[in-house]
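pinned: reference chain
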Amino acid sequence: MPENRREEERLQILGALEANARVQQPVSVRELSRHGAQIETAFPLQLNALHEFRIELGSQSVVVKGRVAHCQVSEIDADTVLYRAGIEFVDLPARVESAIAQFLDAVKAGRRG
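pinned: its structure tokens
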């Protein structure tokens, strides 16, 4: 095996070069409206950060972009810490907003009997 396995040289960055990582992590939606959601996570979210969320609305799935409006510890036990975060949807396409509205209407109708 050759000593240098890389095809291209890596250059050490002096100082800091900012980057963001997109990591797929499960979250639980606790409350949902046409314009936002309250979610529960096992990790804190940075205020004002933008994230994409895939939300399962019954038989269909939508992807929304959301801004973290607030995040706080909601539960602590011996093994885990849970966080609750308020997410404000941004740049919501009309078809996605319509899908969320239809889902919420169906949930309300189902609860009425």
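why pinned: The helical segments are 94-112. The first helix runs from residue 94 to 112.
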